[in-house]
């Protein structure tokens, strides 16, 4: 058992832009975060993970960085960043920062230089290619819609951007570039940052034969995934970063890696690998999504949930650690996607976090989930802010492939903006997020769903989170204990035992709105069942042999 602060801590992801605005310009900022540190402390948070805060023209909300060593104008100053780090450390909390190093903004000085001419010293920091018969070099489509190539009239060549055209990809084969990135990381380590989440880090190498991808039905561009994701040199680059900058055994190094799940994460996280401590996966992003964005399919508890969640749990220690999370700034809202955000809103939100906080891994709570924030079901096209919404509207609706109605329905179910609406602090105008005009609309339900209301209600989702976090911290069993599925084949109930040094904790959760019966397998002996926490009031809690579960009921026992 290799003990680490980042295995024991509870992390919270704040989308800074939407968390708290301190100066009335409608954009969340560092000052707002500083104001709310005590709120996070009260919830029981130990680690704060922030989406990018560096200088950026905000084509992709900070994921397009124009100065790695400075702070985004709207978010504040380096001085405020120092104050934030100090405020966290004073409270015994840590900071995990986003490192966006697969690409930069096209306004970054490196790119400004690079595009000047073919023999500019920075030319090779990016990926340039001549056209093919006066057209783009190949048929790759970027993740955000449109071609992955952008023509640069000045030098007569195309540059590669797997995200938006304002996010040119860096050329990691260039050693000088790698040295500059390492110096930049050291700058943040010296500032006291405790850990890093490296964005899109498995895209650092691209297949430089640039073969065309297969165009799938209903798509306009070729699929380029296998040419830009998880290629072999990514490992060399990660090992180099570990050796040269992340070599303290203190900092936590996390990578966002599409295409990586519990079965193959060891290629990055194996403990003798010297690369990452854990990876953010995409397991839960599209649960419930049908073939097209506007189509739904029922959740299959075994295939969609247990296979993945238990899969991570049952890995060997030498395969590495893992995060516990359902949502982030690239998904929709947890309770809307995986629970029932209407009739059993509170019950299902509490049920979901019960699973999240009783498994092995580092829990990452996405801001607003602790009060059960929901998707923005009322948004119209012009309420969205995500650059990909408008690029794909061009590709799909304006070209006649998809109707406007289906497109909007699809956005309600899948748009990333669902989980980027302002934090709902109270029932005053704009939910107490800002005194100005928010950069993105506040969700229509803020008068019912907000922090102030839930702080006053001992039965609220917020207080359930708080109690559960305290419970997790009260015993090493929930952090480091072994994991064993109970009734693995049950289609509605998810149950398991965590065990460490003779202490056993049994978790029983009804994942849906029905009323299934839990039957304790005969081989599980217990003398006394002590109920530790539940999302319902329970009579005769001690008898666990047969339990009639209510909709979304969750129970945690010590047995
Ligand atoms: O997302 C990256 C991302 O989703 C892809 O790299 C992913 O690997 C692929 O779609 C699935 O195979 C990150 C950020 O989280 C996101 O907010 C940014 O917009 C994006 O990078 C660009 O920086
Ligand atoms: Ca502000």
Brief descriptors of the model:
559 residues; alpha/beta; 18 helices; 5-stranded antiparallel β-sheet; binds 1-O-alpha-D-glucopyranosyl-D-fructose; 2 domains; binds calcium ion; Immunoglobulin-like; TIM Barrel; globular
Written account of the structure:
The chain is α/β, with parallel strands linked by helices. The protein has two domains: 5-107 and 170-468, TIM Barrel, CATH 3.20.20.80; 482-558, Golgi alpha-mannosidase II (Immunoglobulin-like, Sandwich), CATH 2.60.40.1180. The protein has helices at 5-8, 16-19, 30-35, 37-43, 78-90, 109-114, 175-191, 225-228, 233-244, 266-269, 301-313, 334-338, 345-358, 387-397, 404-414, 451-456, 461-474, 476-480, and strands spanning 11-14, 47-50, 54-55, 67-71, 94-99, 128-129, 149-152, 157-160, 195-198, 252-256, 278-280, 323-324, 362-366, 482-486, 493-500, 503-510, 517-519, 530-534, 546-548, 554-558. Strand 15 (493-500) and strand 16 form a beta hairpin. Calcium ion is lined by residues 21-23, 25, 27, 29.
Number of domains: 2
- Which range does the strand content fall in? 15-25%
Output the structural class.
alpha/beta
Mean pLDDT: 97
């Amino acid at each position: 058992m290799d003990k680490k602060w980042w295995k024991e801590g509870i992390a919270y992801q704040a989308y800074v832009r939407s968390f708290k605005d301190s100066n009335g310009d409608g954009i969340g900022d560092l000052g707002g975060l500083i104001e709310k540190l005590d709120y996070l402390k009260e919830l029981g948070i130990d680690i704060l993970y922030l989406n990018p805060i560096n200088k950026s023209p905000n084509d992709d909300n900070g994921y397009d960085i124009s100065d790695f060593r400075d702070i985004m104008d709207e978010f504040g100053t380096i001085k405020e960043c120092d104050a934030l780090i100090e405020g966290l450390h004073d409270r015994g909390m840590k900071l995990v920062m986003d490192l966006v190093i697969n690409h930069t903004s096209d306004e970054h000085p490196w790119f400004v230089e690079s595009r000047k001419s073919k023999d500019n010293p920075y030319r090779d920091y990016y990926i340039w290619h001549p056209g093919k018969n006066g057209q783009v070099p190949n048929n790759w489509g970027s993740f955000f819609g449109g071609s992955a190539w952008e023509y640069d009239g000045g030098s007569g060549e195309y540059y590669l951007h797997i995200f938006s055209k304002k996010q040119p990809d860096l050329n990691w084969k260039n050693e000088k570039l790698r040295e500059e990135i390492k110096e930049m990381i050291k700058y943040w380590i010296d500032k006291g940052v405790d850990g890093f989440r490296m964005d899109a880090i498995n895209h650092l190498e691209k297949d430089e034969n640039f073969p065309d991808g297969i165009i799938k039905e209903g798509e306009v561009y070729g699929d380029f995934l296998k040419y830009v994701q998880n290629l072999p040199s990514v490992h060399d680059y990660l090992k180099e970063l570990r050796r040269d900058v992340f070599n303290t055994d203190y900092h936590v190094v996390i990578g966002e890696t599409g295409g990586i799940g519990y079965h193959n994460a060891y290629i990055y996280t194996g403990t003798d690998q010297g690369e990452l401590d854990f990876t953010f996966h995409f397991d839960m992003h599209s649960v419930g999504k049908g073939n097209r964005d506007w189509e739904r399919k029922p959740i299959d508890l075994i295939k969609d949930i247990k296979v993945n969640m238990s899969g991570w749990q049952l890995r060997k220690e030498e395969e590495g650690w893992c995060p516990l999370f359902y949502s982030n700034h690239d998904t929709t809202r947890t309770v809307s996607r995986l629970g029932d955000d209407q009739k059993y809103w509170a019950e299902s939100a509490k049920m979901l976090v019960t699973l999240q906080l009783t498994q092995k891994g580092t829990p990452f709570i996405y801001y607003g989930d602790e009060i059960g924030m929901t998707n923005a079901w009322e948004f119209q096209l012009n309420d969205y802010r995500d650059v990909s919404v408008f690029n794909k509207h061009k590709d799909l609706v304006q070209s006649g492939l998809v109707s406007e109605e289906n497109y909007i329905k699809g956005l309600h179910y899948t748009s990333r903006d669902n989980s980027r609406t302002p934090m709902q602090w109270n029932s005053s105008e704009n939910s107490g997020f800002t005194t100005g005009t928010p950069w993105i609309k506040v969700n229509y339900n803020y008068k019912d769903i907000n922090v102030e209301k839930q702080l006053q209600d001992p039965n609220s989702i917020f207080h359930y989170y708080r109690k559960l976090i305290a419970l997790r911290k009260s015993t090493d069993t929930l952090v480091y204990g072994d994991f064993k599925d109970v009734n693995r084949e049950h289609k509605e109930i998810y149950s398991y035992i965590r065990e460490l040094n003779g202490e056993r904790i049994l978790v029983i959760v009804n994942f849906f709105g029905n009323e299934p019966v839990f039957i304790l397998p005969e081989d599980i002996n217990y003398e006394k069942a002590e109920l530790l926490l539940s999302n319902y009031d329970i009579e005769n809690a001690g008898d666990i042999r047969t339990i009639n579960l209510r909709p979304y009921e969750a129970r945690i026992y010590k047995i």
